[in-house]
Amino acid sequence: MAAGEVNKFPSIPSYPEMILNAIEALNEENGSNKSSISKYIESTWGGLPQGHKALLNVHLAKMRDSGELVFWKNNYSKRDPNAPPRRGRGRPPKAKDPLSPSTVSGPSRPRGRPPKDPNEPPRPHKVKTPGGSGRPRGRPRKIARPTGGFDGVPAVEAAGSGRPRGRPPKMKTPFTEISV
């Protein structure tokens, strides 16, 4: 604060103190959730600042990240000094091996492929030997089809293909009369 500035809320302790007092006073078995902490602070200390909920969220997050509070199943509780630390989600990181090449001090290899030695004699080229069925690799080339429609029906050619465009015409069967 500046020299001439006066504290707007002189009777209110800091948020971390209020949060710790609320958790101790509520004394719930699995810890206290955010709404019960907020209600306790509002009932105990009146005249809270305008953004009380936002300030409470910020301070709870800071205290959780610093390790003052433990957040478990949506409840906040004080950290027990004798309790082992809780494991987070996911797989734990691998332990560093002190004898691995990455941890031993020395010249480390650069990334990527090593450069070619300019003094090395050139290698002879590989000769391709015919093998297998004798056909070339890959998909066979398209063979040009004769132009014209199917069954002697003239058709409009599509650009470059031997098939007419669109759906083929429906073949109508001739009706035969049955004498009775």
Uncertain segments are 1-7
The biggest beta sheet reads:
2 strands, antiparallel
Helix content: 10-25%
Give the percentage of residues in beta strands: under 5%
Distance between the termini: 115 Å
Order of helices and strands: HHHEE
Mean pLDDT: 77
Strands side by side in the biggest sheet:
1-2
What overall geometry do the principal axes of the alpha carbons give? Answer: flat
Got a strand count? 2
Task: Explain this structure.
This protein has 180 residues and is mainly alpha-helical. 21% of the residues lie in helices and 4% in strands. It is built from three helices and two strands. It has helices at 15-26, 34-44, 52-66; strands at residues 69-72, 75-78. It has a two-stranded antiparallel sheet with strand order 1-2. β1 and β2 form a beta hairpin. The longest helix has 15 residues, at 52-66. The protein starts with 14 loop residues before the first helix and ends in a 102-residue tail after the last strand.
